[in-house]
Structure formats: structure tokens, C-alpha cells
Design goal:
The chain is α+β, with helices and mostly antiparallel strands. Helix content is about 30%, strand content about 15%.
Length: about 425
């Protein structure tokens, strides 16, 4: 076996297709964050990339994201040990298992033609002499770099823009210093937002359910159905919604009390790489009860930024926080050793990363249209520093969802913005 290169590069990639599987043209995008740690100084350097296609699929964009990442890495003209993290089982299973069998059989398979065959071949060629470890992570589950890659992908799909290769140091998340992030409110993931919205809807429509049991069927059909709460939940797909429901019903974080057999079954499904979170519908007649946590959920449901995703913190270019990382640690090890809270996206008062500012280039208002607060002078303001609302949004003419002013398509319904 060839020696594994000493220098580690970490890639976090994601893809998006607006209306995936729907008839007609479905615009898509892919994006990624690439991290390299200087073995001498220990400093971590980052690059971003994003690509788009007018008519595509999730699987196609996932493969293109792999190709784009390795093309950028290969431009350094040396071999690296690459750790590629994605929430696509299609990529992880394909690159670790399927492609080897296809190649041995002359790129054929018993089940018929290989989907995206030319892209699979191109992805293998792009790997070149690099040694790659493929890692799967559950999407929208609080992994900061995956959330950021998702943000790049959905914005690329909506705006139909490409980065034209790697963008050096477009963003830098805090690594060894939590700075002032720890003083901010903890970041909410899909489960937290689902619970917050659930309590909000129960208080508004069935306040007695704060004290008495109700059925699982009522939960997903009447109280918080996905189709009516998608924007507030900031959950991009129905699969992610079902995963959040399954996590809630499994008893994660103690938000509800439910039948023990149901909770055990859901925990097994969630723990399995091939599990079906939608199995909770088999327990439609089971009852659940909100715990005391619902009584303390008094704060309003937060509005969601136009991208539907959180924005990573910007690190001042003069901040030497990354210099504290040990030179003996690779980029992946440095992140593996940290809690997600350390590099969690900031609250909405932080500006959008520099690379994304080009996607929303309109004149900023002088006062916040939501709260009337005075905005900072002399620079563009993306979020109100008083109420945290996104100032660069408009409404989709088809479904009413919030959109960035530069987007050509709605990330909720996939309709053209015009």
C-alpha cells in the first residue's frame, strides 16, 4: 500500500436541488468548505467553493461537489490525506463500495445502467494520488461545517452562481477561541426548532395539550404538519422533518414523555445508517405528553434568515486564534477534539461571510423595516443589530417564503423569483 500523506485536508461538502425529482427543470447547487492545517505553524486556512446547474438532481450535484473539491486540492500539486465529510450516503457508499465493483465489471451492473456514470468516472480521476477517507454525517444535525456547506449549496442553487474555483480565506470560523460566542444564546438545531414551534402552535390552538396527552397522528397531521410550518422550522426536506419528529418522539432532550416501546424502536432506527425515521407513523395512535420544558418555552419562535441556514462567525483577520492549535494536530483532529458549540454559527446579528455578500448587492435601508431601529452608517448591514431580522429578503410570489433579493429561484418551492 502507498504511504498516506502526512498533510491532512478536511472537506465538508453538501448539495441542493430545488424541487428534486419534480417534473421540469429543477435548479441545483453544491458547495463546500476546505480546510488545511499548516504542519509547521498549526494555523488552519480555509477555502470555499460553490457551483450550480439550471436542471439537475441531488445526486448529480453531490458528485460534482466531489469533483470540484479535488480539482481545487490537486491544484496545489502535491498529495494530501483528505477527509471528505458529507451527508450524502450516495457519495459515501458509492466511493467506498460501489465504484470498485463497477470498475471490475467494466462499469456495468446487473440492475441496469449506472446513474451518472461519467461523473463517477470523473470523480475517481479527480482523486488522483490523494488518499481519501469518506465520512458520513447526518444532515442538519448541528455539525457546523456541514451547515455552512449546506448554506453555500442552497444559495448557489437559488442564485445560479459559481465561485469559479476555490475562494481563499472567504470565511474563518473560530477554532481555538470561543471569543464572545459562549455569551450568546445556544444555537438551535432541527429538534430545538421543532419543539419551539410545537409549543407555539399548541399554545395558540390547543393550550390544554400543555397538560394532557395527545396522539402522534395529531402531532404530525394537525398541530405541526410540515407543509404549513416549513419556513418557520427552517427544515429543507420532508426527510429531515421526519428525522426531527422521530428524534422528538424518541425522547431526545426530554421534550416529551411517550410509550417506551415506541421510543426504543425510534432510537434503533435513528442509530441505524439505513434506518427509516418515518417509522413513527406506525405508532400514529400512541400518545405523548409535553414535559415541563414546554411550560418554560415562553420566547417567540425566531424568524429564519433567507437562506434557511445559520451563518458562521467571522474571525477578525488580525485574530490569531487558530495559532493556538497544536502543530501535531491535523485539521480534522483539531475539529474532532472540539465541541460543536465552539465553532457554532453566531446569532443573526453577525454579518454574512464576505464571499456571500456578492449574492445580495442592494442598497441597505437606513432604518430597520421590522423594528424601526437605526442601522449602522457607512457600511452595508445584512441583519438588524437590534432585532436580528434579515434586511435583505423579499417574499416569494408563489409561496410567500422569504428570499434573498438576488435569488433567481425560491428555495422552498423552486419557483422562479420573477
Amino acid at each position: 500500500m502507498p504511504d498516506v500523506p502526512a498533510e491532512i485536508v478536511a472537506v465538508y461538502a453538501d448539495e441542493s436541488c430545488l424541487g428534486n425529482g419534480r417534473d421540469g427543470d429543477n435548479p441545483g447547487g453544491a458547495g463546500g468548505l476546505i480546510e488545511w492545517q499548516n504542519p509547521a505553524s498549526g494555523k488552519i486556512t480555509r477555502w470555499d467553493y460553490w457551483i450550480s446547474e439550471r436542471s439537475t438532481t441531488n445526486n448529480r450535484m453531490a458528485l460534482r461537489s466531489v469533483i470540484e473539491a479535488f480539482r481545487g486540492i490537486s491544484a496545489k500539486r502535491k498529495s494530501f490525506a483528505v477527509v471528505f465529510t458529507t451527508d450524502s450516503r450516495y457519495i459515501v457508499d458509492g466511493m467506498t463500495s460501489w465504484v470498485h465493483g463497477w470498475a471490475k465489471q467494466g462499469w456495468k451492473r446487473k440492475g441496469g445502467p449506472i446513474e451518472n456514470l461519467e461523473l463517477w468516472k470523473e470523480a475517481l480521476r479527480a482523486l488522483g494520488t490523494h488518499h481519501c477517507e469518506w465520512r458520513w454525517v447526518r444532515g442538519h444535525n448541528g455539525q457546523p461545517q456541514n451547515e455552512y456547506a449546506n448554506d453555500l449549496a442552497t444559495r448557489a442553487a437559488a442564485s445560479q452562481q459559481d465561485s469559479g474555483g476555490l475562494i481563499p480565506e472567504a470565511i474563518s470560523c473560530t477554532i481555538s477561541k470561543s471569543r464572545n460566542i459562549q455569551r450568546k444564546a445556544p444555537r438551535m438545531d432541527d429538534l430545538d426548532r421543532l419543539h419551539r414551534r410545537l409549543v407555539h402552535n399548541v399554545r395558540a390552538t390547543r393550550p390544554e395539550y400543555l397538560k394532557i396527552p395527545f396522539s402522534v397522528r395529531e402531532l404530525y397531521e394537525q398541530i405541526i404538519p410540515y407543509r404549513h410550518n416549513r419556513r418557520e422550522l427552517a427544515i429543507e426536506t420532508n426527510d429531515d422533518y421526519e428525522t426531527a419528529i422521530a428524534r422528538l418522539l424518541s425522547g431526545e432532550r426530554g421534550y416529551v414523555v411517550a410509550d417506551a416501546a415506541m421510543q426504543d424502536s425510534l432510537r434503533r432506527e435513528l442509530a441505524s445508517p439505513t434506518g427509516d425515521p418515518g417509522v413513527f407513523k406506525d405508532f400514529a395512535d400512541a400518545t405523548i405528553t409535553l414535559t415541563a420544558a414546554a411550560e418554560s418555552a415562553q420566547t417567540p419562535v425566531p424568524t429564519v434568515a433567507a437562506s434557511g441556514m445559520n451563518t458562521p462567525v467571522l474571525l477578525d483577520e488580525h485574530d490569531n486564534g487558530t495559532d493556538n492549535v497544536s502543530a501535531s494536530q491535523g485539521a480534522v483532529a483539531a475539529f474532532d477534539a472540539m465541541s460543536p458549540a465552539t465553532v457554532a454559527p453566531a446569532a443573526a446579528t453577525s454579518p454574512i461571510p464576505t464571499l456571500l455578500e456578492s449574492l445580495s448587492a442592494t442598497d441597505a435601508p437606513t432604518d430597520c423595516r421590522f423594528c424601526g431601529g437605526t442601522l449602522p452608517e457607512g457600511r452595508e448591514t445584512n441583519y438588524c443589530p437590534h432585532c436580528g431580522e434579515n434586511l435583505r429578503t423579499r417574499r416569494c410570489p408563489a409561496c410567500g417564503s422569504e428570499m434573498d433579493t438576488s435569488w433567481k429561484f425560491c428555495v422552498t418551492c423552486g419557483r422562479a423569483a420573477t
